[in-house]
Automatic annotation (TrEMBL):
Protein name, per record: 3-oxoacyl-[acyl-carrier-protein] synthase 2
InterPro entries: Beta-ketoacyl_synthase, Ketoacyl_synth_AS, Ketoacyl_synth_C, Ketoacyl_synth_N, PKS_Beta-ketoAc_synthase_dom, Thiolase-like
Family designation: Belongs to the thiolase-like superfamily. Beta-ketoacyl-ACP synthases family.
Domain Ketosynthase family 3 (KS3): residue ranges: 4-400
Keyword Transferase: yes
Gene3D superfamilies linked: 3.40.47.10
Entries under Pfam families matching the protein: ketoacyl-synt (PF00109), Ketoacyl-synt_C (PF02801)
Keywords, alphabetical: Acyltransferase, Transferase
SMART domains: PKS_KS
Length: 401
């Protein structure tokens, strides 16, 4: 890989069911503590577990109009504000035309849509808020971030199902590499825990009502979750010029498509394997350079079997594998950025977090999944996998700063 395509991570922010900041989330993930709980809003459905974000308060949300925002935008804005603060960037001081925003998600303002549909059905069109569309449209998270922080460079939204966040990282890196910006704010946010969405996933047999157990032999589906993650990416020269301390480096990325089925992964994991191998080539690394893996690890029977087989083929040296979805649930389109942020923290600390809910890996899974407690395992390089409905595969390669 040409090092001109490398980006440095200078800030990160997290809003998850484990806490509305980086420390709360990392503490729960590092401890392997599940955040799933019965959700009263899902009462009467086949599945009632979810991972909800606790009550969120942040100064960025107290601005005029903040109360009208859908949770997907509120989560995203809070995560971005945290990331900018850690990066030491003040939007009042930057040239907004040299800053980009790239966001990833799947459902957009699902809560806003649910409310508007109920009001239309029960009371008529005059009771639908004029703010419905600005809360519901998928690009509005991106637009709100640009508006709040004075970003006038490219502002783009990516939607590749559960690969969306990692797709956003790759796109942001390319914007930096092609000189279209000096700073790229990347955010994945999702607030899709609604009765209709949960019913849809339940009808597909994708959800568990007992808990998320990635790679465990008894796993029976994922727990739906909400949350947001944000990373500040910069060109290395730009970060150095302002004496910013990099947290990690984004050194490789690749994306593929299965072209196999709308929701089922390719049974041999061909697209996923191609993405992992291509991301390593992009990073100018070999498989043996990978120190640990942040797996997609959804806790569904099919996905975990196929991902384990891919990792066994591509990484025969069996590096430690972890999945944050045991702790945080599946945050869908936000998962890629949230998990990339956790990978940055793992690299910095020299730790691989445990996979919550794991007791014994499934039959035939010849991979080293970390369970129980966090493992002291210094790594120079880690990969973060994201695979989504539609056959979307995206892989990021991150390196210690």
């Amino acid at each position: 890989m040409s090092r001109r395509r490398e980006a440095v991570v200078t800030g990160l922010g997290l809003v998850t069911a484990a806490g509305c900041d980086r420390d709360g989330t990392w503490s729960a993930v590092r401890a392997g503590r599940s955040t799933a709980s019965p959700d009263p809003a899902l009462e009467g459905l086949p599945v009632t577990l979810s991972c909800r974000v606790p009550e969120l308060d942040h100064p960025v949300l107290r601005r005029r109009g903040g109360a009208r925002l859908d949770p997907v935008a509120r989560f995203g804005l809070a995560a971005v504000a945290q990331a900018l603060d850690q990066a030491g960037l003040d939007p009042r001081d930057w040239d907004g035309s040299r800053v980009a925003v790239v966001t990833g998600g799947g459902f957009g303002g699902a809560r806003t849509q649910e409310t508007a549909q109920a009001r239309l059905a029960e009371h008529g069109p005059e009771f639908v808020s004029p703010y419905f569309l600005t809360g519901y449209l998928t690009n509005m998270m991106c637009a709100n971030i640009a508006l709040h922080f004075g970003v006038t460079g490219p502002a783009l939204f990516t939607s590749t199902a559960c690969a969306s966040g990692t797709t956003a990282l790759g796109l942001a890196r390319d914007l930096l590499a092609t000189g279209q910006c000096d700073i790229a704010i990347v955010c994945g946010s999702e607030a899709g825990v609604t009765r209709l969405n949960v019913t849809g996933f339940a009808q597909l047999g994708a959800l568990s009502d007992t808990g998320s157990r990635p790679f465990d032999g008894t796993r029976d589906g994922f727990v739906i979750a909400e949350g947001a993650g944000a990373l500040v990416l910069e060109r290395p020269g730009h970060a150095a010029a302002r004496a910013a301390r990099p947290l990690a480096r984004l050194i490789g990325y690749a994306a593929t498509t299965d072209a196999h089925h709308l929701v089922a992964p390719h049974p041999e994991g061909r697209g996923a394997e191609q993405a992992v191998r291509a991301a390593l080539v992009d990073a100018d690394l070999g498989p043996g350079d990978v120190g640990h893996v942040n797996a997609h690890g959804t806790s569904t029977r099919q996905n975990d079997d196929i991902e384990a087989a891919v990792l066994r083929r591509v990484l025969p040296h069996r590096p430690p594998v972890t999945s944050a979805k045991g702790t945080l649930g599946h945050t869908l389109g936000a998962a890629g950025v949230i998990e990339a942020a956790l990978t940055v923290l793992a690299l910095a600390e020299g730790t691989v977090p445990p996979t919550a809910g794991l007791r014994a890996t499934g039959t035939g899974m010849d991979i080293d999944v970390v369970g129980g407690t966090a493992r002291n395992h210094p790594s120079s390089v880690a990969i973060s996998n994201s695979f989504g409905f539609g056959g979307h595969n995206a892989v990021a390669v991150l390196a210690r700063a």
